[in-house]
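Data availability excerpt. The first of two example chains:
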Amino acid sequence: MTADSPAGRQHAFLERATADLDPPFAALDLDALDANARDLVARAAGKPVRVASKSVRCRDVLRRVLAGPGFAGVLAYSLPEALWLAGGDDPVSTDVVVGYPSVDRAALRALAGDEQAASRITLMVDSADHLDLLDDVVPPGRRPELRVCLDVDASLRSAGGRLHVGVRRSPLHTPDDAVALARLVLARPGVRLTGLMAYEAQIAGVQDAPAGRPLRGLAVRGLQAVSARELAARRAAVVAAVTAVAPLEFVNGGGTGSLERTAAEDAVTEVAAGSGLYSPALFDGYRAFTGRPATFFAVPVTRLPAPGVVTVAGGGWIASGPPGADRLPPPTYPAGLRWFPTEGVGEVQTPLRGPGTEGLRVGDRVWFRHAKAGEVCEHVDALHTVSGGELVGSVPTYRGEGRAFG
């Protein structure tokens, strides 16, 4: 990284813009955010992009993105969150799909007691159990009609189930599975089938060109190609079968890593994306696109324990998912820093080594990127916003607004 490279310039303006702030804090590069948003829209090729809120976790950022062309609606990760985003006279969105089934009885009662919210929020279901729970919480005669969406499993499975590539989400896998539940929804008073979702995590959320691992990249690309062909045919068959029973308002699919593939499917009416807005470290290794890192967190150097070693306060903002080095936040600026394998990143301190330690003194900053997107917002009350090399303000995260959604 040189001073006149894009990364070098970004490091310099982050340092300059936040010089008066005491770390730890998180910063959001609005110029990078806006560029990433434009890229997502271009990759969606005319299909609307529903914003995955779990990858953003900041209402101001959600509003900024939704105000731009090509974006429509929110894919929330919990019903309490959806009620918050869709509620009131100034909602973040009047079209919020809850991406996961909810068994939060208090939230379900709140939804059933609010006709406006019920018209704006779509619940996710994948079995009759979810319909039974709704009826148990608030019987059909005592609630407005609730919108529901079928969650169809998008993983790649072999006959007999010996091979399973993808996440384990829904029991609905075949057209017959989806139609059977669609018929149950149609037969139930108090619910209306409005949509269908199938999220291909094994394509959208797995790097196909991981740095320094060419053989893994080759294997991932091969599996993803097989999975994409299988899913495109099966998703089309599922949608055709379900729409023969009931019309659908939307068919959602995809994620940041699969927008082009998913948007190309005629059966899909909209795509979802969120991580690509912040472009965290886990999204560096894709061949189809290159994002601009937009979120960073800064921590101070507190010790110089040995030549070539610095210790920073905290740093252990570890991402969810399978345990591994790729879930740790990489030290990014200055370039040339790495953590010790025997210590990793710590709760209260993190020692770092490498050529990037040269010139660092007690009180200087080290900038990290989170491995995932929205999870960084669980650690801070605000994102300090920078644009054009200047600090332009700050926006509260969900945490900063006193909200935490499991």
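And the second chain:
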Amino acid sequence: MTNQEKMRTLEETFELDENSLTEDTVLADIVEYDSMAKLSLIVLCDDEFDKKLTGEQIREFKTVKDILNFLD
């Protein structure tokens, strides 16, 4: 899966408009990036990417690129 496809998946997960994310998007600037979005991200990582994501790891994410790097 390309980074572009991963970003589309993140947009769906966070219920954002298509093409609203870039790799440089700061997560703190996304209104929809709340506790429910973070829980959805944990489920997404487990179900779609077979990766275990912890709360501590989520707190370290600052940009969309940080999430993409984790998913690689």
